[in-house]
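From the pipeline queue, job 12 of 40. The input is one protein chain; the requested action is below.

Action: predict structure.
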Amino acid sequence: MAQQAYVTETDSGGSEPDRRASGLRRLNRLVSGWRGDPHIWRRGIVLAAVAVVLALVMGLHARIPNAIGNLGSLIETFLPWLGLLIPVLVVLGLVRKSATALIAVLLPAIVWLNLFGGQLSDKTGSGGDLTVATHNVNADNPDPAGTAQDVAASGADVVALEELTADAVPTYEKALASTYKYHSVQGTVGLWSKYPLSGVRSVDIQLGWTRAMRAAVTTPAGQVAVYVAHLPSVRVKMEAGFTARQRDKSADALGEAIADEPLQKTVLLGDLNGTMNDRALRAITAQMRSTQGASGSGMGFSWPASFPMARIDQIMVKGIEPMSSWTLPETGSDHLPIAARVKVDTSAS
């Protein structure tokens, strides 16, 4: 009976030491297949060259010109995804049995980790005295009331909504009225707040219609200037490349408005149609901090909602300390809402 039990156990996969030994034997066969091979340094030169080019593209992305189809901005929008080519190159290097290729792949791996490795860690902190959220609700949203309720459920003290239509505004106002006593809608953007608003006005971002606004929010921790913006959309066209000229012009105008803001503490909420890596947003990013970059966990991609590939929705601050940042669950929009907890009163920091 004991012998039968032993045979059954062996037939079902063997003992753990046996499996480890088998794995070591397979690894040894792989290494021995390379040992003494005089061609491991000569094979895979093309793969090595591709790895070097990949490292240069990522490391020198700011030097890639925008003169032709805004190529630089296009690459910067999806820059983190270039890292997916690294494991592909590793596999190809193993298949080719090329030591040269495998060593070369270290270059893009190091560059990628230098650029984005910090975002892989969880920088979420505790505390803070103000929670803000922003959401591009999508003009074609089939459930505006449900979307409004979902965003309000985040517990945010201040909520910005973009891509509001005239027909949908009353629905959002009704759905948010019980949670937010104060609100203002300017053009296609709106701001809802639990705290009083003052100095509300539209912000000219060189479009000819209103897609940005500013308001002073009087929070218990002090007054904060809150900007809500929806920069023009960008498109990728075969004949024109990354068409973002109007977006870039609006970003410069928004950056100038924020630079002229008299209040020292400022929050920007909105859909900027660009990532923090995109040099076209430099007029904004050079003077403000991303809450996701400073206090988030992971990349925080927000678009498209079905399979987020880029963080084009942003919460940025100046004179305020980010404490935590996160994305909210999917709504009826093609964007994910995002939220952040910040510390307005930094006197004790």
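Job complete. Residues 37-119 form one domain.
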